Amino acid sequence: MIARLQRAATTTALIPALYGPDDPRHRLRPRLIGAEYRGADNQLPLVGDPQEVLGGDVLDAPAQRIGARAPERPVWLCSVRSDPRHPDLSDTQWADVARRLVTAAGLAPSGDPNGCRWAAIRTFDHSVHIVATVVREDGRIHSTYRDAFHVQAECNRIAAELGHLPRSVPSVTTAKDYRMPAPYITIGTEPSGSVVAKGSSDDLSATLLRHAGFKQIQDWHGRRHRLPTTTTRADRIAVATHAAEMLRAARYNVDLDPRLDSGLLATPTDPQGLKVAGRQVLELADQIRGASSAADAAMALGQLLDPDDGVLTRLREALEAAAEQVAGLAPDKYGLSGRLSSGAELISTAEAELADTLSDLRTLGAAPAQPGPGHPVQPPDLLRTRAALARSATAPAPKSTGPLAAPTRVPSVPAASAGPAGRAR
């Protein structure tokens, strides 16, 4: 069984869809097979033509009573269809399916006189439409968060009980049982070479998988997500690892194939399995070492020091997130959380210290100004950068025993002889 949820402003707006076109030759004949009107008149029909229920404000009455507090679209519509390869259910069976679905969603719990009103309507074989209001009889509004997951989970159990699904599913179903995500989501590699994620039966996990790069496929086998067989090995590992990280952050249990986990590929015997982030930084270091000009070095260094998306910025954000996560998962481990926060602060200090480094490095590539006779003056930024480079390139000189006065001007000298000036600064 597959369920689809929609919302509407009034039940009257559903009449054109349930009754079909105005042409008598194609006019549908919907029939009411079950309903619960709660505090409404008990003489309302439970079977027959649903025109009176849809057009008489029967289901809309609770929303009308609370006025402006009512949601913009208080009507809840759930369309359910069964596998046409199996025999169709009777009206009584479909009415029982509707009652179980509104119970699983929490709209109309059993024994709750203040639950939401609902009605089950059939138009075609192998399907049923459940129309309800999200406003309860006591004026409270039902929260529709994860309704799609609750309803689809119940549909899977009903289909298993009817023999439409081969897997075994528990028969006892309540809304409380399915407030947490699915037990496991498996991400693995099929013999064809494509990466498939199975077990995603709710909208949240499906959204996270699509965001990671998976393509959704939904058929009679259920909802699945896969990557094309043409996806490169590096992309398969990156997408699968990213999807697993997001799902675990959302408190799903994920079984990730070790061959797709980039965190497990860094082993001493596998030089090609370095972690992605570390390999990228290593490549940047190689680019900086092999730079033939200051502009090339600045371009590579910019990926480390970029204030918006640089490696240092992302590393600081990762440590801050780790500190918050540790503080939430283990409040008594405040020392560990504090160390992570201190590390993030140190990186923030380093970012501030290196804020002007890129501009200074780019200045090295600019053409120096031509000084006039007897005035060897150079740009201050260029002089400061050269002095810093000279300090790192020359050996430290012995400390002076006398007082060392700060120079008033840095002379234009070769880098090899700029050591004393650098120390004076």
What report would you give on this structure?
The protein has helices spanning 15-19, 51-55, 61-66, 91-105, 147-162, 203-212, 233-249, 276-289, 294-305, 311-329, 334-353, 357-364, 380-393, 419-424; strands at residues 2-8, 31-36, 75-81, 118-122, 127-133, 185-189, 195-198, 215-219, 222-226, 254-256. By secondary structure, it is an alpha+beta fold. A 5-stranded antiparallel sheet has the order 1-3-5-4-2, covered by helices on one side. A 5-stranded mixed sheet has the order 8-9-7-6-10. The protein is elongated and about 85 Å long.
- What form results from the Cα inertia axes? elongated
Percent range for helical residues? 25-40%
Mean pLDDT: 75
Largest sheet: 5 strands, antiparallel
Instruction: List the strand order in the largest sheet.
Output: 1-3-5-4-2
Oligomer: single chain
Strand content: 5-15%
